[in-house]
Design goal:
Number of strands: 0
Structural class: mainly alpha
Order of helices and strands: HH
Distance between the termini: 76 Å
Shape: rod-shaped
Strand content: under 5%
Radius of gyration: 23 Å
Length: 56
Amino acid sequence: MRNFLAVSILIGSVSFLTGCATAIAVTDAAVSTTIYAGKTVINVIDAVTPDIVNKD
């Protein structure tokens, strides 16, 4: 009975951590995409209006 409980806790923990890792990976991809899009917007604005952004 004791071994069954230990195995059950182990399986539950592994299942939870796998789901948690997936959620973290999805969040990381979304944040990376958002940051990259923001950098692209800033680069486009800088290319169109370099005097305003760089204050030359």
